[in-house]
UniProtKB/TrEMBL annotation:
Cofactor entry: Zn(2+)
Single Gene Ontology MF annotation: zinc ion binding
InterPro entries named among the record's database cross-references: ADH-like_C, ADH-like_N, ADH_Zn_CS, ER, GroES-like_sf, NAD(P)-bd_dom_sf, Zn_alcohol_dh
Start and end residues of each Enoyl reductase (ER) domain: 6-335
UniProt keywords, alphabetically: Metal-binding, Oxidoreductase, Zinc
Family: Belongs to the zinc-containing alcohol dehydrogenase family.
Record-linked PANTHER family: L-THREONINE 3-DEHYDROGENASE
Stated name of the protein: L-threonine 3-dehydrogenase
Pfam family of the protein (one): ADH_zinc_N
Length: 338
């Protein structure tokens, strides 16, 4: 839990959540740990401005349904599930035009209400996503960040045959490499400053894995000097964002997932306008296009995120889990809960 407004988490006994008539209670088996959880742990400016302790942290999970509300029809006790952690109003202009991922009234589990680093979590039944029988709880538990990668890689892009640059090979960048590979990209160049993460990107199918200082040469070699068709910006680091604009081809696309910590300067004339590029800002996962894509890719067997998961901890190991992420030694870190 985040018990008070300050750094760290604490382990506490809390009451089992009660559910409303349109909600279900899920016993959590596996939960992914995310950079957002690190922000909440460290209690940085973003966390201070957004979060209201006390609350249970965590937004990536999978488990079993153990109770359903009186109005719930499509989810049953015993179902193996994960869930979309963004709870939207379903009624606003955005929700009712197929854009619920940018609903202005979004509440996020583990940020704005109790989350999943616990034995049980209450979720609206409409947010529940059923897992295929052969999808493990562990993979179910990382659908949220995998969904970020699917959304970024496959929304308004044409990946088959494309040349792709992925800047930033954190867990989401590594998932994106695997997705582009499965979707038929002809060449995937992945950049990161961390050799451990480049190694993971290579295992996920990147053709070239390079330090950012070598990215321009790699792109030039792979594209005859034109630049890549698509950049997936997955670092949030200003230098990488400038590189994304520099290394995308004229008329190409930059899909922006990484979140810069501070405002940054962009030369719109030279970096964007005269290059005729298209920029797409990624928020969460499209509801539920992204989820269907993700399930189909997993079903096909062409995409396997398993190599990205490097560290597993019990809930009691929360300090170690956060440190594993901060150290840069880890890919995806998960809690094994029950
Ligand atoms: P991460 O911090 O684990 O990964 C970022 C990677 O970028 C790291 O491996 C880091 O070494 C690398 N990097 C640093 N400088 C670089 C440079 N100059 N060039 C290339 N790579 C560089 O993060 P993650 O969990 O994989 O998430 C990726 C980004 O996406 C983060 O910024 C995160 O905040 C953001 N995010 C956005 C959304 C959204 O909805 N928009 C959702 C989840 C995460
Ligand atoms: Zn809405």
């Amino acid at each position: 839990m985040k018990e008070t407004a300050g750094p760290g988490f604490v382990l506490r006994e809390v009451p089992e959540p009660s559910i409303r008539d349109d909600e279900v209670l899920i016993q959590v088996r596996r939960a992914g740990v995310c950079g957002t959880d690190v922000h909440i742990y460290e209690w940085d400016d973003w966390a201070r401005g957004r979060c209201r302790p006390p609350f249970v942290v965590g937004h990536e999970f999978a488990g079993d349904v153990v109770q359903v509300g009186a109005l719930v029809e499509n989810v049953k006790v015993g179902d193996r599930v994960t869930a979309e952690g963004h709870i939207v109003d379903g009624m606003c202009l955005l929700c009712r035009t197929g854009n619920a991922h940018v609903c202005p009234h979004t509440k996020i589990i583990g940020v704005d209400r109790d989350g999943c680093f616990a034995e049980y979590i209450a979720m609206p039944a409409t947010n529940v996503w059923h897992l295929d029988a052969n999808v493990s709880y562990e993979i179910g538990g990382i659908h949220d960040p995998m969904g970020n990668a699917f959304h970024t890689a496959l929304t308004h892009t044409e990946i088959p045959g494309a040349t792709v640059l992925v800047t930033g090979c954190g867990p989401i960048g590594c998932f994106a490499v695997g997705i582009c590979k499965a979707a038929g990209a002809s060449r995937i160049i992945a950049s990161d400053v961390n050799p451990k993460r480049l190694e993971l990107a290579r295992r996920m199918g990147a053709h070239d894995t390079v330090h950012p200082s070598e990215a321009a040469t790699a792109v030039e070699r792979a594209t005859g000097g034109y630049g890549v068709d698509v950049v997936l910006e997955m670092s949030g680091v200003p230098a990488a964002i400038h590189q994304a604009f520099a290394l995308v081809r004229v008329g190409g696309r930059v899909q922006m997932l990484g979140i810069p910590a501070k405002p940054m300067e962009v030369n719109f004339a030279s970096e964007v306008i005269f290059k005729g590029i298209t920029i797409y800002g990624v928020v969460g996962r499209r509801m539920y296009d992204t989820w269907h894509q993700m399930t189909r890719f997993l079903r096909s067997g062409e995409f396997d995120p398993t190599p990205v998961i490097t560290h597993r901890f019990p809930l009691e190991g929360f300090d170690d889990a956060i440190h594993a992420i901060k150290s840069g030694e880890a890919g995806k870190v998960v809690f094994e809960i029950a």
